[in-house]
Amino acid sequence: MHKKLVHTARISIRWGDMDALGHVNNTVYFRYMEQARIEWFATIGCDPDPGAEGPVIVNADCSFIKQLKYPGEIEVLTYVGPPGRSSFETAYEIRRADAGDTIYAHGSAKVVWVHFASEKSTPLPNRLRHLLAATD
Predict the structure, then answer these.
(1) What DSSP element (H or E) covers 58?
(2) Which end of the chain has less Cβ packing within 10 Å, N or C?
(3) Domain that holds residue 28
(4) How many domains, the chain?
(5) Is the dihedral of CA 93, 34, 51, 58 positive or negative?
(6) Cβ distance 96 to 73 under 8 Å?
(7) What whole-number distance in Å separates Cα of residue 64 and Cα of residue 88?
(8) What is the distance between the alpha carbons of residues 48 and 84, in angstroms, rounded to a whole number?
(9) Strand 120-121 with 105-115, pairing
């Protein structure tokens, strides 16, 4: 995927993010990526509108490279690819804020724009399409 950095989120690692083995539980990484994605949508004025339409994730993956542990702060870098009719790819890098360019995990998610009442995909909004097209 040709990708362009569109957003960086800083998130504190919470004590409750850890599991019995003393590192951040694997499910929490998906929450970190979700938080970064929602922050990015808010910055570009594409908040989900349950009464109309918005983004739905149809798949997501994560590769765990190094263990994250409490305490600390992470950066989640969000990248996007070019738009399709109703969808686009996102990619994420998760780093500790105090560890430079060391990647602790990376993942991706396919975003489909959906009309919530009909539960069907709908074309991406023009403002989002133009922003994504600028990533080529």
Answers:
(1) strand 53-64
(2) C
(3) 4-133
(4) 1
(5) positive
(6) yes
(7) 23
(8) 19
(9) antiparallel
- pLDDT above 90 (res 62): yes
Contact between residue 103 and residue 76 where contact means Cβ atoms under 8 Å apart: no
Q: Would you say 113 and 123 are in contact if contact means Cβ atoms under 8 Å apart?
A: yes
Model confidence, pTM: 0.93
Residue 59 pairs in a beta bridge with 110
Tokens of 19: 């599991």
CATH number for the domain that contains residue 98 = 3.10.129.10
CA distance 136 to 128: 14
The full 3-state SS of 83-134, as one line of letters, equals CCCCEEEEEEEEEECCCCCCCCEEEEEEEEEEECCCCEECCCCHHHHHHHHC
How confident is the model over 76-107, as pLDDT tens digits? 999 999 999 999 999 999 999 999 999 999 99
